Amino acid sequence: MATTQKSHITPWRVIFNRYGYVSMAAGIWAILTLLLIGLALRTALDMSLSLALSAMLAFAAFLIWWQFSPHLKRVTPPASSVQALFEEIRSAQKPVLISLESDYCAYCMTLGRRVHQLEHEENLRVIRLSVHTEPGKSLAEQFRATTTPTYLLMDNNGQLLQEWTIALPVERVRYDIRRHTATHQAVQAN
User: Fold this and answer.
1) What element of type H or E holds 129?
2) Which residues have CB under 8 Å from 98's CB, separation 6+?
3) Domain check: are 112 and 180 in the same one?
4) What range(s) does the Thioredoxin domain occupy (predicted)?
């Protein structure tokens, strides 16, 4: 049975790092717009209908963006424990890139999307894990990952091939993946 753990990071910090300055400004603007509309309705302030409708449409557009933006997907653990994760790695039949991320890490959010695209571009399985919940927390302790993002490239036997502990350009990660994948395929062919 999988358990979920709450992050110790405050919600405003998660929102700020996940969505950035522009989104926070748009959110504050939307809240102020709603307050202005409420004030206008309560005090019978003369407010043109077009201004009220445009403010409501802008707020609705912001809410739609907030809910359906593709880069806002949560990091979901694929397995409930480290043992189940290693079983999934062994059954993958291809190398696995594990991305250990944090809720408040701006680099994790930015690079996470680009690294996750490698799954489609390379013969690779990408697993994104949060270091605040299991099995990411245990895996981070096992590999002594103290910074985020940390990327672990493993073969299908669960052996660590490469570890990156800094925010590298995705092209460098792609180069190392191709190098290790070619070596791994050559060893398995013999």
Assistant:
1) strand 125-130
2) 127, 129, 139, 151, 152, 153, 154
3) yes
4) 86-158
